[in-house]
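Example 3.2
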Amino acid sequence: MIRGATHPRAFTLIELLVVMSIIALLLSILVPSLGRARHVALVRKDASKVKAIHQGWISWAAGDEERFPTPGMVDRLADPVLGREVKGRGPEDMLANSSDNIHSLSVMHNLYSTDAIVSDSEPNGSVFIMDDYDYDVYDPTSAGDTYWDEEFDCDLQDECHVSYASIPALGARKPLQWKSSGSTDYAVLANRGPMFGDMNLISKTFDIHGQGRSWIGNVCWQDNHVSLEESMFPESSIYRTTDGQVPDNIFGIDCVSGICNFYGGDSWLVLVSELSGDPVEPNLTLEWDDE
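Structure, written as tokens:
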């Protein structure tokens, strides 16, 4: 043993406990802040997606008489004079205007990509990005008659490739609002909500931005601005008729005179997976996330 040699001093148990306590204290301060920052980032990214979808529709409308993408006007019914389907001829096929067809048509024409219509905050495992969208199926000839990938779905209980709800392209709202010159205070697209805007339901949609407690979502208005709303009754959303006006639940069927139906003019946002029956007032298969 060499005289005068010293051994390095180790930390005592008390010193280690003090250091660990300081680290734990710092983490308790930083983690919530990081969680809030991540939440804010997700909300902002989600808002940019909502805005981009609507902007894509506006781009389409610039070359289609102000109409947003309308599958029934692209894949029309047989021309009554010619007796067959011809591109750009014949009556509108209203039963083609489902949400999945609207988005699939938009993707086919590169208005936005499939990843732009699935929220990064998506809580439903049945909703996912369609990575294998088939652009090659497009065939506008009379023999092929295919204008979008019909494998694109919006069934929230099975398979869905879109996170957002929009106004149905039918009824009184269609000629008034399914176009780029609609009312600037009209909600046209948003994070989807509970069934018919019922605040008493338990819904997966509360997990999107409301942290499981309530509905909070990004809403896109007809002037293309997006607002983060904490209520399904945004202050600027009012349903007006000649009989009066009421606050508009953007996920519900609103009434002014006691007559309410799916085909009115209020701002009603939903996913429509299928239309059938009467082309004027069809049967709707609606998609909700309620348990």
